[in-house]
Amino acid sequence: MRCLLLAAFSVLLLVAQPAAAQVAGGGSKSTDCLAEFNAPANLPAKKPKKVRCVDNDPTCDSDPTTGVCQFQVEVCVNVSDPALPKCGPDRIDRFSVENVQPDTDARHDFDFQALEDAVNAFALPVTANQTDVCSGTVGIELVLPVRVAKRKAKYQKMKKNLRTHARGRVDDSDKLGMQCLPDTATSPCDTVTSTFDQIQRHILTPGCGRDTCHSTVGPLHDLSFAPGETLSFLVGVAPNNAAAAAAGKLRVDPGNPGNSFLIDKLRGKLGSNEGSRMPLGLKRLKGSQIRLIEEWIAAGAPATGFVSTLGCQP
């Protein structure tokens, strides 16, 4: 579980950010100024309401990491907005972002939670006498998914919708659409060093190594998919599931995908008392992703070398 430290929000204010546009977010013109976004919105050009950004474009993406867009977003309340002359300041007591709860759920968005916490900590409550009070910026990350194909891999676009509610004497509900597009000059294979490296970066870390799952050994499992730890927890290791262990399975049985419990968990082909499909609570991995892992296991599950016809090649 990630700890949210309020002090971290103040540090974000010191970081140079892409140019921000003011986005009211939709709703009644009599209440739409009660909460507005400051974000690198750029679509449509004349009156931006959404963020549509190509990865690594410094005018909108504040994270130089290839395959990740980060949009700096802040919320201001009781905004003096000349575009909304019928809207005036009012009492606002609380602010929420639509999010999956609790934070142990794999679908929980920690960046959305951080924004909600920042607004409630630094901007609220306000009275009708207080105007243009802002939370400070919070980075919202969009990680590009990777499609695995024959002898190649390709980034795909990613989008999120930020839906918020400012509540007081009256309510203001808003939305900010965000989309990250791949940079056609880059490939997810550019820095991949082996088949396992690709599996770690493009499948296990984003799909299984989340803070809510196997980012480290936890109280409900003894399996970590953290970079540098995955192989020692998988290869040749008996599962801690009693039924799978009794059947003679290994988490990863080198050379034998059919006896590898990892494949059973990913495909959801599980016997009685063998638990649930993984990633728990998320969409099933693509078939090509699972086949990449199977080919890696069939080749002996090596730490180095390119051993699959799928995905990145030497």
Radius of gyration: 23 Å
The major β-sheet equals:
5 strands, antiparallel
| Element order: H for helix, E for strand | HEEEEEHEEEEEEHHHHH
Q: What does the average pLDDT come to?
A: 91
Q: DSSP strand (E) fraction?
A: 15-25%
Structural class assignment: alpha+beta
Overall geometric form: elongated
How many domains? The number is 2
Number of strands: 11
Number of helices: 7
Bin the helical content. Answer: 10-25%
End-to-end separation in angstroms reads 37 Å
- Low-pLDDT residue spans: 1-16
Protein architecture, described:
The strands form three sheets. Strands 1, 2, 4, 6 and 7 form a five-stranded antiparallel β-sheet that branches. A four-stranded mixed β-sheet has the order 3-11-10-5, covered by helices on one side. β8 and β9 form a beta hairpin. The protein starts with 6 loop residues before the first helix and ends in a 16-residue tail after the last helix. The chain is elongated, with a radius of gyration of 23 Å. The chain is α+β, with helices and mostly antiparallel strands. It is built from seven helices and eleven strands. It has helices at residues 7-12, 110-122, 195-207, 230-234, 242-246, 261-267, 287-298, and strands at 21-23, 35-39, 50-54, 68-77, 92-97, 133-134, 138-143, 146-149, 152-155, 158-168, 171-181. It has two domains: 7-149 and 156-181, no CATH class; 195-298, no CATH class.
What's the gist of this structure?
The protein is an alpha+beta fold and 314 residues long. It contains 7 helices and 11 strands. The strands form 3 sheets. Strands 1, 2, 4, 6 and 7 form a 5-stranded antiparallel β-sheet that branches. It has a 4-stranded mixed β-sheet with strand order 3-11-10-5, covered by helices on one side.
